[in-house]
TrEMBL record:
<comment type="subunit">
    <text>Part of an enzyme complex containing four subunits: a flavoprotein, an iron-sulfur protein, plus two membrane-anchoring proteins, SdhC and SdhD. The complex can form homotrimers.</text>
</comment>
<keyword id="KW-0349">Heme</keyword>
<dbReference type="Pfam" id="PF01127">
    <property type="entry name" value="Sdh_cyt"/>
</dbReference>
<dbReference type="GO" id="GO:0006099">
    <property type="term" value="P:tricarboxylic acid cycle"/>
</dbReference>
<dbReference type="GO" id="GO:0009055">
    <property type="term" value="F:electron transfer activity"/>
</dbReference>
<keyword id="KW-1133">Transmembrane helix</keyword>
<dbReference type="InterPro" id="IPR000701">
    <property type="entry name" value="SuccDH_FuR_B_TM-su"/>
</dbReference>
<keyword id="KW-0408">Iron</keyword>
<dbReference type="GO" id="GO:0046872">
    <property type="term" value="F:metal ion binding"/>
</dbReference>
<keyword id="KW-0472">Membrane</keyword>
<feature type="transmembrane region" description="Helical">
    <location>
        <begin position="69"/>
        <end position="90"/>
    </location>
</feature>
<comment type="similarity">
    <text>Belongs to the cytochrome b560 family.</text>
</comment>
<dbReference type="InterPro" id="IPR018495">
    <property type="entry name" value="Succ_DH_cyt_bsu_CS"/>
</dbReference>
<dbReference type="InterPro" id="IPR014314">
    <property type="entry name" value="Succ_DH_cytb556"/>
</dbReference>
<keyword id="KW-0479">Metal-binding</keyword>
<keyword id="KW-0812">Transmembrane</keyword>
<dbReference type="GO" id="GO:0005886">
    <property type="term" value="C:plasma membrane"/>
</dbReference>
Amino acid sequence: MYRAVNSKRPVNLDLTTIQFPLPALTSIAHRITGVILFVGLIFAFWALDKSLSSPEGFLAVRDTLANNILAKLIAWGLLSALAFHFVAGIKHMLMDAGYGVTLEGGVKKAQATVVISAVLIILAGVWVW
């Protein structure tokens, strides 16, 4: 028979009240940006196929990306997701290699991930707009 070790322990199932540490938030964001990139491949492959189909298709994609605000937002969103996912992936590779696996190292790497990603996202926004 299963018996709880401490049956008087409170159980909190409301995730909105939990304060996640920064490394946890960056890990969750890394997963979310992976999903965004996977879904965004639909738009990227469509634009690639259209632009390679003919010179007119290339001009249509170029004009769409140059003049359509929604297309620019999608492009910036995909570049932003790619930037964060790439930086967080490097962080995970460093952890897999054994660098900064302490609590303090994890927090510092998470902070660096946020700062570097923010700079890359701003640069992507400047480039797209």
